[in-house]
């Protein structure tokens, strides 16, 4: 997983908890990389999973909640660092529908070693998008947070229904109410 995900995560932990909490979860998990993450480096995604687990133990906030909050947070960061992806996109559903063929397709050009999930997106009607998420890394909670963060960014009211169909497939049904 790209270092930018780790640096954004640790920045969020510092912002929402403290710098000591960052040190504590690194000490707790003793990541093989040594936790000297650089934005362009690539690291084992399990280091992130372990730090989330450690943060969850220390804060008594469930791990899935923490990952969803992180997903929302990181969308706003990505929207700033990759503003070019948002130009001319009218609303959250239009953006989300292009996640596989436009957004992540550009991401892989920028970072050829990125490990991206698969999204199969289908409009049911103008205001309803079904997104089938598949990834061996099982970051459906992150996807959920990113979808919600995307809605907030566009000022759209979204409902996100989630169906964990099996371990490797989660279906999100995203409805936009201000269509
Ligand atoms: C400007 C917007 C976005 C940018 C620049 C972006 C970029 C990235 C990057 C760089 C990674 C890390 C890849 C790696 O570590 O190897 C990633 C992973 C991921 N992205 Fe995006 N992304 C964006 C929006 C979204 C949205 C809206 C969603 C959800 C619909 C999403 C879902 C995910 C998920 C779930 C992962 C984790 C990897 C996995 O599940 O296997 N991304 N993205």
3D structure, described in words:
This protein is α+β, with helices and mostly antiparallel strands. It folds into two domains: 3-61; 71-176, H-NOX domain (Alpha-Beta Complex). It has helices at residues 3-16, 19-29, 45-59, 63-81, 92-97, 99-110, 140-154; strands spanning 118-125, 128-134, 158-166, 169-176. A four-stranded antiparallel sheet has the order 1-2-4-3. Strand 3 (158-166) and strand 4 (169-176) form a beta hairpin. Helix 1 packs across helix 4 (63-81) and helix 2 (19-29) crosses helix 3 (45-59). The protein is globular and about 50 Å long. The model has no long low-confidence stretch (mean pLDDT 96).
What labels describe this entry?
179 residues, alpha+beta, H-NOX domain, 18% strand, binds protoporphyrin IX containing FE
Write a compact overview of the structure shown:
The chain is an alpha+beta fold and 179 residues long. The chain contains 7 helices and 4 strands, in the order ααααααββαββ.
Layout of strands and helices, then pairs:
Blueprint: H1 3-16, H2 19-29, H3 45-59, H4 63-81, H5 92-97, H6 99-110, E1 118-125, E2 128-134, H7 140-154, E3 158-166, E4 169-176
Antiparallel strand pairs: 1-2, 2-4, 3-4
Helix pairs in contact: 1-2, 1-4, 2-3, 4-7
Bound molecules: protoporphyrin IX containing FE.
Protoporphyrin IX containing FE (HEM) binds next to helix 4, helix 6 and helix 7.
